[in-house]
Amino acid sequence: MFTYWLLLAFLLFCLGDIFSFYEMQKTFWCCSGLFLLFEIVCLCKKYNKEYLFCGLCCFLVLAGGFMTGTAKLETQKRWQKLFGKQIILQGAVEPDSIRKTEQGIGALLAAEYPLHGKVRIFVKTDPKNADLTMRKLRSGRIGLTGVLKEPVFLRNPGTYDGYLFNKIKGIHGNLTVSPAQLHELGEPLPLRFRFTALAQKVRENALVQLHISAGAILPGMVLGGYQGVGPEEADVFRDNGIAHLLAVSGTHVAVLAMILQALVRPAGKKGIIFIQLFLALYALLCGLQPAVLRAVVMACVLLWGRSRKLKADSLRLLLLTGWVLLLANPFWLFDISFQLSFVTTAGLMLAGSKVTAYIPQNLPDWLRTVLGVTLTAQVFSFPFSVFYFHRVSLIGLVSNLLLLPALELAVLLFLSGLCFLFLTSVGGMLCGLLFPFAGDIQPGSGIFAVVVSFPFSVAERLLQGAVAAGKLLAGLPFAAVDVAGWYKVQYFCYLGFMASFFDLGPFSRLSSRQRKRWLGVLFCSFLLINAARYLLPQDLTVHFIDVGQGDAALVRTPAGKNILIDTGGLQGEADISRMVLLPYLRYLGVKQIDALYLSHGDHDHAGGAAGVAARLPVKNVFLGAGAEKSADVQALLKVVEHKANVYRLQKGEQWNVGDCRIVVASASSGTSSAAATETNASSLVLQLFCRGHSLIFTGDADMETEENAMRLLRTADVMKVSHHGSETSSSPHFLDHIKPHFAIISCGKHNRYGHPAQDTLERLAACNIIPLRTDELGAIKVVFGKNNLHWYSYRYHENQF
């Protein structure tokens, strides 16, 4: 009974935390009113005092969660008041956050003045001064002077939510400075950051010993994180269902604790204390991540209890550990590592033995245990994979059996190599002191090199084999499948199905026949809701994707066809297809692109085309004049060679895609006074007609190109404004001709070009056209009904996506 009350209290605390995180003050006060009403009823009816006490305790726990989260929000609001102001920051840089680029050095500053919190800083410096700046950032506490800016992120469904991430991690702004605005305060790093710096040094020294591109996986498995891990290797781990290995979890801590127990068993209680101290040190080296803290706290408590021959209730310990962590940081509740760690651990405690019981008895016990643990973890983490990644591995069971032993052995050898590296370094120093006549003895020479390199070399071979096998498995048909975002009711159906199947919670009181009925009802409900997405009639829907300073739009026709018009592009090495387009398409359940149109070859319109085509089938590619000169288009053509039909469009052509007709109103720069090399003037101008509705896409066309296309254009409901709202687009004559109700402007927030131009906005207003901007609204969804249309903003109407 105590466990049930503890679970109820924990859930109420989490509910209060949720109310504060999403700023649902009205909902909290409504719940408070219900508790007050309950107390009044109990007093009037003269119920047992236990009811009064329980109601009061429940309210206090709910209020505790709400107030704890609200305190963090108050700090965030105080930081927001500093946006746009010149401030002086003082604090220390997190050593593992430092990243060097061609333009300068970025890092995360743990500020202590004027407020406590984290700020992303960027020091603009040239390559000559980069090392000096790096030393300053790592030296200790520093001071910076600059203008604090609001963080800017893209807003799209199914993709990385930077605003949510910053809120969880307590990151409150951005600060860009020059080296002259950075100065050292002469104080050392805080103790926690010294451990992080040590871990970073270990990672860097280890990478020197590893000679393969995938070598960064080994430090990642030991210390956590994707630092240095290539996107292809990361995809291999995800598609094989073993991505948890790159985020230090309970598996790592359990293996480490068992090895240490075997080594220090003769030491008795002193050995237990040593293990606890070692695990605490390991948590510090891993950066005090919630999943690591959960595993370390539970392991230390269990070891302490075992040393005193006490038996702990694992579920109670898990709940208390979670409560302690949330008191330390209430917003960890929304961290994916916290969620997966606690949910999978709870699943193993509650249903692990039941899952193992379904595995054939004639298999060896160790194999049944491994299969049971793997299956249980996958079943309980499945909805999280759908919610966060929209991609699920179907070969996780096989991959864990085949790849996990090799990877764990590689990690053990890697750790052995690190120990040898440390010992040989110390040995070299001692030899230098005892035998000065022998000169400098380096750990990288002679017998030292052989001893150090052997475990690293074997670990590399094992890692290479595991990655190669992982690629082979991931390449199998249906190894990993994309899953469209679920409706909220589907998550409840899945939760109820699991509880009924494993006889958990209130379902444990039902008879076998009743549980079977519930299983049938929940399973059928889930399937019907999912089938409705594809079987019910669909309206013409257009998604204007928020790709920053670029263009990308997805047209979903009533006939089920998918038309992608432009693919955006980000500066630097950022891949817009991996960061935005593919997650967005997976979220919507898009399985293939029936037609891909590129208005022209500029990177901000074609940068993600090759990435999309490499991971999603594309049937037809349509290009305008001169587009093939672009490196991005060349990369696309290389990917789709022998896989897709490629067409070079001409002005006046008409193409049917399902039940939609697309008219090419302009396809070359021949009619424009601009030079032939001017890619904007050669942009495609397209008009899409479908069931009485019409949209116009103008790429980056200038006014002259737009007006030359008017002969083939008709009035439209919606127009995508050319060139991100530049002053060179959308002349009054052109706007008066097509008479759109809405004008979509796709541009980046606070972009350096000043888009959209004020003149363009005034021209739209003069024609009574409503502008909808992705920099203000995020992704924009336009739904065309029979006689009307509705638009939704992901920033303000998230539930409509």
TrEMBL record:
Alphabetical GO biological process terms: establishment of competence for transformation
Transmembrane helix as UniProt keyword: yes
InterPro entries listed in its UniProt record: ComA-like_MBL, ComEC_N, Competence_ComEC/Rec2, Competence_DNA_uptake, DUF4131, Metallo-B-lactamas, RibonucZ/Hydroxyglut_hydro
Compartments reported by the entry: Cell membrane
The protein's name in its UniProt record: Competence protein ComEC
Keyword Protease: no
GO CC aspect terms: plasma membrane
Membrane topology: Multi-pass membrane protein
Principal subcellular localisation of the protein: membrane
Domain Metallo-beta-lactamase intervals: 549-749
Keyword set, alphabetical order: Cell membrane, Membrane, Transmembrane, Transmembrane helix
Lineage, opening ranks: Bacteria, Bacillati, Bacillota, Negativicutes, Acidaminococcales
NCBIfam families (UniProt xref): ComEC_N-term, ComEC_Rec2
Organism, scientific name: Succiniclasticum ruminis DSM 9236
TM spans (from-to): 51-71, 210-229, 241-260, 272-305, 340-359, 366-389, 409-435, 489-506, 518-536
Superkingdom of origin organism: Bacteria
